[in-house]
Amino acid sequence: MRNPVSLIRHSLVAGVSSLPLLMAAAPGAHAAGMPQLDFRNPLLTGQVIWGAGIFLFFYLALRSWALPKVDTVLASRSQRINGDLDQARAAKVDADNAVRELNETKKAAAAEAQAHLDAVLDEERKQAASRLAELGSKLEVEIASAEKAVAEERSRALESLKPIASDVAEALVQKLTGTKPDRVRIEAAVAKVAAEKSTISAIA
After folding, report:
1. Residue 100 burial (CB < 10 Å; 0-12/13-18/19+)?
2. What is the DSSP string of the chain?
3. Which of 75, 83, 97, 148 makes a 20 to 30 Å CA pair with 90?
4. What does the radius of gyration of the chain's CA atoms come to, in whole angstroms?
5. Rounded CA gap, 152 and 146, in Å?
6. Coiled-coil region(s) at which residues (predicted)?
7. Which is it for the CA torsion 25, 28, 33, 38, positive or negative?
8. For 135-163, how does the pLDDT look when each residue is reduced to its tens digit (9 = 90+)?
């Protein structure tokens, strides 16, 4: 696209350069029936001279004062538009970089959070397994202690029942046979039965 100032300058130059051609063609135009181009008329000659002078004055004024200002304004405007476009491109590049950095930061933060969560869960699992193992050991010790205590209580109960069982057995035998049995044999039999009961209870 051509500069508007250059177009105006070419138009003015074309207008000035066409004046001699117009003056050269004026006699032929008058001969063809155009009295307004009869340069033998002093009034028409004065009008043409004044018109050419005014046109030349405006041409020189436009060329030396108006057109440079218009050219300066257009150049300044073009420079400002180009500067704005450069700033917009730079801002777009900065925005794209910021978005990319934000996405990378989000990915890194998510990965770090996931790693931290996995570490915390793994530590919690280890602690839970350790607590369960410790609790299991304590329960085993307590169960063994309770079983031992039960066995001791059973033994003491059986020991305490032996005299009573011996007395009951002696009384039953004496009542059934009419004779008094041997106390030692009664106690031995009761002890044997108690031992068998203890063995069966231990197996169960």
Report:
1. exposed
2. ---HHHHHHHHHHHHHHHHHHHHHHHHHHHHTT-GGG-TTSHHHHHHHHHHHHHHHHHHHHIIIIIHHHHHHHHHHHHHHHHHHHHHHHHHHHHHHHHHHHHHHHHHHHHHHHHHHHHHHHHHHHHHHHHHHHHHHHHHHHHHHHHHHHHHHHHHHHHHHHHHHHHHHHHHHHHHHHSSPPPHHHHHHHHHHHHHHHHHHHHH-
3. 75
4. 65
5. 10
6. 85-119
7. positive
8. 988 898 888 888 888 878 877 776 776 67
Q: For residues 58 and 11, is the Cβ–Cβ distance under 8 A? A: no
Residue 179, helix vs strand vs coil = coil
In the numeric block, which tokens belong to residue 97? 């970089």
pTM > 0.70: yes or no: no
